[in-house]
Structure prediction request, 233 residues.
Amino acid sequence: MVDYNNGSDEVNVINISDLKKSYQVGDMEVPILKSIDLSVKKGEFVAIMGPSGSGKSTLMNMIGCLDKPNCGQVIIMGKEINKLSEVELARLRGFEIGFVFQTFNLIPRLSAYENVLLPTYSNSKNGVDTVQRGKDLLKLVGLDDRMGHRPPELSGGQRQRVAIARALINDPSLILADEPTGNLDSKTGIEIMNIFTDLHKKGRTIIMITHDPDLTEYADRVVYIKDGYIGNN
Ligand code: ADP
Ligand code: MG
Prediction:
């Protein structure tokens, strides 16, 4: 097991301390995250809840190395993201982190299979047979009979399955899902949650933002963001 914590027993995939993030809107500095502390252990499934506009996606983007904090520390897999170059950030994003979004974010003109392989064109781990892995992943999410379909020819739940397969193509240890069932009916949402549960059982770390209190039962732990701070209720 990789040791991100210099010999300490607990392996934290994420260590965030006193993170602050504000946005400049016109002349005004609008504070969104005022002081966030969050640690996530390897293999944990953490749900993040909070009112709309509270900064959940903002926090997720920083965990996913898509954005940087104004101040405070964000350490992902032992690496402090404020100290990484753009190239190092891209590698961390590409190899270690899989993203799943509410609106699926698939390329409409590409087939399901081509969408799944997309992340490997810019970044792929040496020695991995991505052609076979793409097929295996579509099978894993129950879409082996839909590989050639394009997103407009798929249902919402099927599109999200393609997006999950795409998130897994580079075998990330950390999966970030921002309201992955937000655009799905509840039955389809449960099917997607079952896929996350299987990934969690296989040892992946999962962070999921959700509005739906029923979905928090899938998580080991729930954290709440409110008024710029994190709490446990
Ligand atoms: P949540 O995901 O919890 O609904 P977000 O993280 O998307 O909230 O947004 C938090 C707040 O930050 C919102 O008020 C939003 O308008 C604001 N915000 C997000 N991104 C930007 C940006 N790029 N510029 C200015 N304000 C932003
Ligand atoms: Mg959001």
